[in-house]
Amino acid sequence: VQLQASGGGLVQAGGSLRLSCAGSGHTFSRYAMGWFRQAPGKEREFVAAISWNGGSIGYADSVKGRFTISRDNAKNTMYLQMNSLKPEDTAVYYCAADLSYNTVRLRTGMTNYWGKGTQVTVSS
Prior knowledge:
Elements: E1 3-6, E2 9-12, E3 17-23, E4 32-38, E5 45-50, E6 57-59, E7 67-72, E8 77-82, E9 91-98, H1 104-107, E10 113-114, E11 118-123
Parallel strand pairs: 2-11
Antiparallel strand pairs: 1-3, 3-8, 4-5, 4-9, 5-6, 7-8, 9-10, 9-11
């Protein structure tokens, strides 16, 4: 599967953004999907993941209650709705996929399927 993330931008603290990740191919629904981010000078970190049918969802503690992950398999697209954004959310956001029905392995970042990142900048 090939992935393309979009929707990043510059927003003030407290604002919202919605990221999208479009997947190519006819097997999108077979993949667990997720979002990761990498801030300057920091390691890439897990943000959120969703199983193939949306039945299992998980978030990093730092974004729980503020971010919502979802997917539309008919459109081969995954989303990340980000509300109440904070300056510490500033990072390049990457979408990832894993050919698995659950998100266990994906959450570790152990996958070969990554999209190019989209920059999110939150000003204070």
